[in-house]
Structure formats: C-alpha cells, structure tokens
Design a protein that fits this description.
The chain is an all-alpha fold. It has eight helices and no strands.
C-alpha cells in the first residue's frame, strides 16, 4: 500500500509540528506506541467477536478509530469504522466475516507499521520536513 493510502500526511504533519522540538525519532517512537496499542486493540476485538461481545467490540473499535484518526492512520480508521458499525448493529452472527474483517485490519496495521518505518512518510508530511530542519 502506498503511504498516501495509509496516512493522512497533512494530519500527521500537524502532529509532527506539535512535537518538532523532539525530532523525527520521537515521532517514530510515538507512532510505534500507537501501532502497538492498535495491535492489542485488534486482538481484543477478535476475542470480543469470538465471545459474542458486541458492546466490547464496538467500544474497542470506536477507541481505535479515534486514535487512528488522531495519528492520521486513515486506512486503519476506516477499517475500525466498519468494525464498529457491525458491532453496533449486533452483526456478530456472521463471525467468519467479522473475523476476516479483523484479519484485514491487522494486515492494514502491518502495512501501517511498515509505513511508519519508511523515511518517505516524513518527507511527504510538510510538518515533518520543518521538524527535520529544527532537529
């Protein structure tokens, strides 16, 4: 997946501008913490789906959708939006479909993590370019 598919580079640039004094490595570390939390949340959603816990799944999907938006992880945010909608509608009967949706979100997260490690991410974000000059 291309960086532009995974990230809203403008939102990420705004976040980078807020942390410009800490430098690029700080931003990468912050994004890695987000990705680790996202992985935990997706595994929690999987368990909720297996247990038929629509409320728990919706809560985790909503939380991860919000943090994904804050970090500019647009593709992961979209995946969480779908998972949240399914859970709120009580559509856990199609567990196989839901499991596939969670697996797809995990693949998106993997691509997102690869994107975090890619130098192009910080070049495409206007705020990060300023951050590199400040460091």
């Amino acid at each position: 997946m291309r960086i532009e598919e995974l990230f809203d580079v403008e939102a990420l640039g705004e976040l980078a501008t807020l942390h410009a004094s800490q430098g690029e490595e700080f931003m990468r570390g912050l994004l890695e913490l987000f990705a680790a939390d996202a992985h935990r949340a997706l595994l929690s959603m999987r368990v909720s789906a297996w247990m038929g816990d629509a409320v728990g799944l919706a809560r985790e999907a909503h939380r991860l959708k919000g943090s994904s938006g804050s970090f500019g992880a647009r593709r992961l945010e979209a995946e969480c939006r779908v998972l949240e909608r399914c859970a709120r509608e009580g559509d856990l009967g199609g567990l196989i479909g839901l499991e596939e949706q969670i697996e797809h979100a995990l693949r998106v997260l993997h691509a997102t993590r690869e994107g975090i490690r890619h130098a192009e991410l910080f070049r495409k974000s206007h705020g990060c370019c300023n951050m590199q000059q400040a460091a």
